[in-house]
Design goal:
The chain is built from 4 helices and 7 strands; from the N terminus they run E-E-E-H-E-E-H-E-H-E-H. The chain has helices at residues 41-44, 67-88, 101-108, 130-142; strands at residues 3-8, 12-18, 27-33, 51-53, 59-61, 94-99, 117-122. It has a 5-stranded mixed β-sheet with strand order 3-2-1-6-7. Strands 4-5 form a two-stranded antiparallel sheet.
Length: 143
């Protein structure tokens, strides 16, 4: 059975595939990057939130949202679509997701309930070479 492994953080992701995780055979299926998640907050916003007048002399203010969080949410949605497309095309039966905990929370909001058997590890292995990643996966899954 084919397993997909998503290794991601808020700015980059790798989707890997394996027919047998015990042997450590990992193949890179695709890499995705979201450079806006790496930008500074000032580069992501054009204006500061301001105040405005309302009827009755009261004042209001715009809700402050974190632009970096918004960009991470956009990337999580993109990754969820990738995973759903692969599932719909029967490209995998099991899914391993390796992301920092916060990003997994953003991603989880967009994952379909019936996607696959999902295993999650709260790590950031995006910079790991394939051999080291395969070794770490074996440690987590088969120890």
């Amino acid at each position: 059975m084919i397993t997909w492994i998503l290794v991601a953080n808020s700015a980059e992701a790798k989707i890997l595939t394996s027919e047998n995780l015990r042997t450590g055979d990992l193949k890179l299926l695709r890499e995705l990057k979201h450079p806006d998640s790496r930008k500074k907050t000032g580069e992501l916003i054009s204006d500061k939130p301001g105040h405005y007048k309302t009827d009755g002399g009261m004042r209001g203010a715009y809700n402050k949202t974190d632009p970096k969080e918004t960009e991470a949410e956009h990337f999580a949605l993109q990754l969820a679509h990738e995973l759903k497309a692969g599932w719909d095309q029967n490209q995998y039966k099991h899914l391993v997701i390796i992301t920092p905990a916060h990003f997994y929370g953003l991603l989880g909001k967009h994952l379909d309930n019936h996607l696959a058997d999902i295993i999650h590890f709260s790590k950031d292995y995006t910079r790991y070479p394939l051999a080291k990643l395969a070794e770490s996966l074996k440690e987590h899954l088969f120890v």
